[in-house]
């Protein structure tokens, strides 16, 4: 009886071992079977599997796995173009952004568009003789020997300009505005004088015909410093003041409107003295991309004729 009991125990132990080995072989695919654990094949396949990717753990929430444009609807609802996959530089702007950050970016940019801060006045998009923004405000820092009627910018731009000049002064650089807002008639006199002096062909490379000058929009300003005797010269870009502007203007919502090497896009020569207010979001992105305002608006699908700016008649 004792031997029989021992044999039963040995048989039971052997069966347990055989069963364990079989399970191991099945799980490892040794029997030619593909084993997939909790891999959903469709909605509701596994009750415990979350169907909303945003609620899923692990790689599904990894920002590196998100498409560059995040949520296309976030662009469309603000009237902005969804970045195309081939727009590598543009997509790079969104690297590391969360969906919330991308949403805030789009919302802020759309607000600047609505406010007219990206409104383009150029040879292709002229304005009428009576066009004048209704919210012009005085600028604090200007060259005293220039026309008093040009010491204005649109209110938001004027405040940002004053802050920028004060920040430059805190760093030891004295910069002033030479002219900002220019009426149609003022620009007409200026352009006519340049044509008489240089001829129309050359004048058209650095001076705008009346109605095509950004200065009439109240968002642009020409700046200078004592280092160039308060003149508008390309050498300004090589001065300490010019370099400070190039490196810091975007922090206050300004861009260098006519950058070097972009004459074919802007229609004007390199003007390191000409700054233009567009808002901090656009200014920072334009600086990072190294593009012009025209290129930036096209990249974002911003239509110039869709902008409405309150004006004085």
Question: Could you characterize the architecture of this molecule?
Answer:
The protein has 313 residues and is an alpha+beta fold. It has 2 domains: 53-113, no CATH class; 115-306, Muramoyl-pentapeptide Carboxypeptidase, domain 2. It has helices at residues 2-27, 72-76, 88-92, 99-114, 155-170, 184-198, 200-203, 240-248, 263-266, 280-289, 293-300; strands at 136-138, 152-154, 176-179, 220-224, 254-258, 271-277. The strands form 2 sheets. The protein has a 4-stranded antiparallel β-sheet. Residues 28-66 have low confidence and may be disordered.
How would you summarize the topology of this molecule?
Layout: H1 2-27, H2 72-76, H3 88-92, H4 99-114, E1 136-138, E2 152-154, H5 155-170, E3 176-179, H6 184-198, H7 200-203, E4 220-224, H8 240-248, E5 254-258, H9 263-266, E6 271-277, H10 280-289, H11 293-300
Antiparallel strand pairs: 1-2, 3-4, 4-6, 5-6
In percent, how helical is the residue content? 25-40%
Number of helical segments with 4 or more residues: 11
> Which ranges are low-confidence, i.e. pLDDT below 50, for 5 or more consecutive residues?
28-66
Distance between the termini: 118 Å
Number of strands: 6
How many discrete structural domains?
A: 2
